[in-house]
Amino acid sequence: MAQAAAEVVMEQAREIKRHGRVAKGGRDPEGVHQMRVATRRLRAALRVFKGRLEVPERVRRGLRRLARRLGAVRDHDVLLTLVREHHLPHLTGPERARLGRIIGDWREERAGAQKRLGKALARRRHAKLLKTLVQWAEATRPEGPADAAADVLAEAVESQAVALARHGGITEAAPSPEDLHGLRIGFKRLRYTLDIHAAACGLGYDVERRLARRMQDVLGEIHDRDLLLDRLAAGKRLYRGPWPDLHPRLAHERQALVRRFLRLRGEWIRRTREPVLEDDPARFVSLQPARVQLRLVGGTKHVASAMVR
Q: What residue segments make up the domains of the chain, in order of their start?
């Protein structure tokens, strides 16, 4: 387990450092995005191994600060891309002009957030954070039984999957925006845990991992529209007044995304509730060193199942 945690921490610390060079410059939004993903994966790993393997508390605080800085920039990038590519070209007259002024405000806010991020990445505290992570990973040595990591990770996956199965976004026929937002966070955490499991133990949950990513993506797109619709509804500053074209376009897009989510939700429910074998009630395929569950899959249909030692 210590070895698995050390490998995950080392890999993501290197990813943070690599993408940090691009993110600090601010010219390529993809650098900020990839650095944010690496930070999220690292924080997910620390949550999974919490209570069994600990890193210094100052490291956790540093990662939280870094995540906030990256999020402030990335959130603006997402909204700017949404309105510039999907909506601004289709608007005319005063509505287009108002949206253009809003985009100008967002660009200024994004520039401020990027400036703060660049300063944070240039500080010695950031370099020390990465150095501490690498030193901790290098100093960690494998302990305990060889299959401990597989057990811990399978337990974490199952616990998060059970929580999702009980979530309002899964159980309600018409989930509220709050339910969908909470479900997005739940699937994001499950996906990162599944990624950690795949890196340490193999592809025991490969189908679930792909489904979780698709769910996270569609829920993220719904959330982006909800944020913009809320701003329009609040009617403050440049958002004040009617939006006869933009509002219906956003609402229509959201409806289509919700339909896609409902289809994926049905696929998720079927996948996670069906038994693997007639005498095996498990909802997930757990990859264990002593006893491995193999499933041959063609498209979305199961072709064969077998237990091997």
A: 1-142, 145-297
Question: From CA 7, how far away is CA 13, in angstroms rounded?
Answer: 10
Which one, of 41, 101, 90, lies nearest residue 66 by Cα?
41
1-142: what fold?
A: CHAD domain (1.40.20)
Alpha helices in 26-92 (DSSP H): 29-48, 57-86
At residue 143, the pLDDT reads 56
Cβ atoms < 10 Å from Cβ of 271: 14
Between 301 and 216, the more confident residue is 216
SS3 at position 276 = coil
Q: Which residue has the higher pLDDT, 190 or 238?
A: 190
Run of H or E including 298 = strand 292-298
Confirm if 107 and 44 have CB atoms less than 8 A apart. Answer: no
Locate 142 and state its tokens: 């494998």
Strand 301-308 with 292-298, pairing:
antiparallel
pLDDT at residue 46 tops 90: no
Residue labelled with tokens 């906030």: 68
Ramachandran class of 241: left when φ > 0, alpha when ψ lies in -120 to 50, beta otherwise: left
CA distance 197 to 209: 10
